[in-house]
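Summary of Year 1 activities. Much of the first year was spent building the evaluation harness for sequence design. The harness presents a backbone, in tokenized form, and records the residue chosen at every position. We chose the following record to illustrate the format because it has been used consistently in internal testing since the harness was completed.
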């Protein structure tokens, strides 16, 4: 186990897993409670388009991905406010557009593009110091946002109409939340992969909801689960020589399965 820390790429991978697990777990609670699971798939597929643009033009991948993620979040926010366009429909359209652009651009590149497989399924060898800095900044922002807007987020999560009556800036909170989620996804795809990133943004919140009695309890439980599963997945991927994304998802699903069985057993004992 100690030999893991001898390699720089493994230290980066473990730190990245902790940071991705933290941000994903925190956001998963609000995604689950507000039934916004589709946002994860949307932002992940938008990340594919952004990566394709960066690879095709030889641009900084993180910069392009973050810019595209912000544009995606802003577009979802404003399109979702239209009476004739639902948020899920807007996500679906932008998801398809991004995938189409990505596939077209990659078709112009000659030969096999190995980076794509790594982004699709996660690759711990791709994590850089720049990624860790960006993840750290993102996590600091998310934590401060949750702390300072804790009460507003509770109203926003459970009753958006009531929030407006109490003067809570629902539109601003929604926009910031969409941006945070989209940016968290595009930065974390190197660890868990585009195809599987949604699991990190849903499963911790689903598991926490089984046992928690409040949002704050959900946050604590989901953070523990998110970090544990991400780190465990990285360790398994190293020793078993498998992609990090599937390893993390398997750990998450096993935790969910065990939690679900325990919760049902507790209900039966209570009755």
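For this record, the design step produced the sequence shown next.
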């Amino acid at each position: 186990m100690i030999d893991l820390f001898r390699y720089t790429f493994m230290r980066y991978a473990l730190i990245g897993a902790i940071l991705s697990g933290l941000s994903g777990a925190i956001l998963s609670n609000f995604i689950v409670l507000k039934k916004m699971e589709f946002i994860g798939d949307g932002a992940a597929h938008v990340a594919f388009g952004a990566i394709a643009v960066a690879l095709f033009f030889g641009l900084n991948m993180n910069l392009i991905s973050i810019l595209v993620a912000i544009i995606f979040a802003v577009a979802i926010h404003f399109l979702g406010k239209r009476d004739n366009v639902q948020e899920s429909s807007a996500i679906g359209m932008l998801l398809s557009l991004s995938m189409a652009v990505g596939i077209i651009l990659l078709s112009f590149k000659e030969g096999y593009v190995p980076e794509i497989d790594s982004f699709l399924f996660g690759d711990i060898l791709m994590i850089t110091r720049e990624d860790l800095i960006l993840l750290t900044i993102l996590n600091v922002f998310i934590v401060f946002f949750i702390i300072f807007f804790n009460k507003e987020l509770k109203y926003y999560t459970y009753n958006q109409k009531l929030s407006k009556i109490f003067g809570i800036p629902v539109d601003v909170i929604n926009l910031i939340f969409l941006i945070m989620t989209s940016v968290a996804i595009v930065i974390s795809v190197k660890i868990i992969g585009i195809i599987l990133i949604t699991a990190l943004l849903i499963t911790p919140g689903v598991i926490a909801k089984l046992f928690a009695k409040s949002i704050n309890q959900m946050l604590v439980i989901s953070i523990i689960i998110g970090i544990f599963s991400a780190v465990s997945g990285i360790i398994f991927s190293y020793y078993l020589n498998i992609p990090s994304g599937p390893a993390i998802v398997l750990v998450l699903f096993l935790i969910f399965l065990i939690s679900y069985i325990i919760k049902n057993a507790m209900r039966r004992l209570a009755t």
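Residues 2-270 form a domain with the ABC transporter involved in vitamin B12 uptake, BtuC fold (CATH 1.10.3470.10). Quantitative recovery figures across the full test set are reported in Table 2.
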